[in-house]
User: Fold these one by one.
Assistant:
Number 1:
Amino acid sequence: MQAPEFLSTHATHVEQALASMLDARASVVAPSLLAAMRYSLLAGGKRIRPALLLECYQACGGARSDAIDQDQIMPAALAIECIHTYSLIHDDLPCMDDDDLRRGSPTCHKQFDEATAILAADALQALAFELLAKANIDGELRCKLIHSLALASGCQGMVGGQILDMEAESDSEGMNLLAVERIHLHKTGALLRWCCEAGALLANADEAQFDACSRYGKSVGLLFQIADDILDATASSVALGKSAGKDEAQNKATYVSVLGLQRARELADEMRELAITACEPMDASASNSNKSDHLQALVHYILERGQ
């Protein structure tokens, strides 16, 4: 199965679960707030983050996506989408990247207003931890997932990376590859790595499998950002579904600005190889030697975004 095919399958399951989760809260959430949450959370996208979680879960011995216990595994997949969506709403605000388009549609603050967008994002962030807290899993594992997601999304992860990214706009001459990597290991990479590690933990992975998923997640996180930087420099706004060329216009510290387009593409190839190599212990620890096929296909798919 090619990556677009199984990504579509995962996306369908996740979107149905997201819609049901919001519907279940319709009687207790203010209609205007729920409308903004629904608008952004169900705005489409490839759902790569929950797909990474579910694929790492399966690669470490978990059930197929069509056989997954919705109360045990799906809360983590929904939680990461809530965190990701909250970050996109904030990222698009005038005080951040000031963007009018997201996935080809008006951004949340344009569709509603800034105050409603901020509150919708805040609500989605809190909802992520509510979902994990109610997951039907062992209490110790539940606490571990909540704690690790807080680290990956907060000041030691995504939010910390965002402030480094903003500060770098006024220090472009001091930027080098290590500085850019530090930004994106936090801003983009921390949550992608969490997806992979959470999938392994939910599957009760052994130490070798967990370490493999963690290394895979780190490499994929960097690959994803490099591909995103290349796309911003080469694709049109129509193709991206958001404003193209904003990295250069805002003096962002990117792999393309530091390395140039050709070297950024070469580094993306290197990250792909590291991610594929990280998959080997998953197959070695599994009765089915092809357990990581989908994870490897995802690596190629992410790379091709930036070609």
Number 2:
Amino acid sequence: MESRERPEKLTLIQLIPNMMTIAAICAGLTAIRFGVQGNYETAVKLILLAAVLDGLDGRIARYLNSDSKMGAELDSLADFLNFGVAPGVLLYFWALTDMPRLGWMAVLVYSVCCVLRLARFNVSRSETTGDSAYFEGFPSPAGAMLVMLPMFASFAFGTGPVLPDLLMAPYMAAIGLLMISRIPTWSFKKSRIPRVNVSYFLVGFATVGAAVLLYPWEALVVLCLAYLATVCWMLVGRKRLGKRED
């Protein structure tokens, strides 16, 4: 009789990354439910939880040596749901129901741009072996945070939508287009901190963490604006470098 190879068995610990991805998907779906019901703050918090899980699952998978093609595909699908679908649906019910046609068109543009951004990232990741410190276009988690910036500001200052309806839809579409643009954005995953600055970095991290816990919405507004400032700084720096080379 021919001997058959036994299927490889995985420990429960090795399944933790995929379990985290599934938990992120559940958080994104539940965020949509709360958004439809009008509980917007809870919905946004669930998307933030999904973003945290998204940032951890891949690293834990590599640490446990349990990364797989299935996990990578599952992570990409979770990213589309949590950062491409849920934020757009929340914004639609939060601010765009008075103009359903234009508002839903903006949701579609944003979501399609997000899925194209993820597809381009997956293709470039499989074709390149370099360790670039930059992305092309806004990453989908950053796009989700920026598109929800008006919600953060509204929760922070206790006001209604900070942008008029006629501007909210173009704003959402513009964030989507920035995700598929060729604008270079900083890859925090590839950043390296000099040893002499590690202590300062940890103090800064603790400060930011405390601000997010104590003043979550205000801190998120500042972080979003800081991210946009880094993008502008990189664009200006690249233009200056290009002029020098000319």
